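Cross-check.
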Amino acid sequence: MPQLSVVVPLYNEAASLAELCQWIRRVCEQNHLSYEIILVDDGSTDESWSVIRQLAQQDAQIRGIRFRRNYGKSAALQEGFRAAGGEVVVTLDADLQDSPDELPVLYRRICQEGWDIISGWKRKRKDPISKTLPSRLFNKVTRWVSGIPLHDFNCGLKAYRSEVVKNIEVYGEMHRYIPVIAKWAGFSRIGEQEVTHYPRRYGSSKFGWSRFINGFLDLLSIHFITRFGRRPMHLFGTLGLMAFFVGFVIALWLGIQKFVFLQYKMTERPIFYVALAAMVIGVQLFVAGFLAELITRHFADRHNYQIAERIRPLEPKG
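Predicted model, tokenized:
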């Protein structure tokens, strides 16, 4: 088993791959770290795969995985995690903005300090304001929702204990929230390391406003899944009962005014329709929660829990 598995997801990064692999190799050899490099080609349309094949022929520590089409960074990371066999798994981007010089520090912090995850923090970013400003807002909201005090959730340079990546699933655009997913799975020792960030030298940025919007939608999704994925009735049932109760109280008050105090007709008051809508919505939410509970009971992993250790009784000596 190598000490270090370096997982590199990439899309159209042919120009930087040779330099990146050489940099990783030099750092690991200088620090006497056994390593493997896993390059995951996410359906590149340039010469990335040809470069990977050539690099793999020159260095036995380099492995390549190629997708038939572009699935996204999360899918590339998930396949890289499956293939990784190292004691510590480090991810970094292929554009040379992340520095492999950080690898020894990240490895030591995982192995010697006992962290489950060390997330990079690009304190001094070499990106335009069109990327840095949305990123600050995104990180602030994510810290508030998740309760994890990281400054840079979207940093591609992260280190994981092998047990972490083998027990989580990354899909969609959830790569930004791997610390959140890991915390939900029981890996709560999450630290941070300030890292060097370089300006992009090759290729073009894959950032777009659609990714920023999708990021917030994914944050809402993962927040719901982590809190109510196994108990949806707690959310939908609570909201349904509250809505129904509010509508019922309003309708009761209007009914007392109508039949006891002989005041307005109920149907002549707009609030009557608010009450009616609230009761209907409340019933619908409650039924949605009930149906969601029925569905989750048939999930194959409903009773799959993260077990840290087991103590078994000693076998009697014959």
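The chain is about 50% helix and 10% strand. The domain at 4-228 is CATH 3.90.550.10 (Spore Coat Polysaccharide Biosynthesis Protein SpsA; Chain A). Passed to J.P. for a second look.
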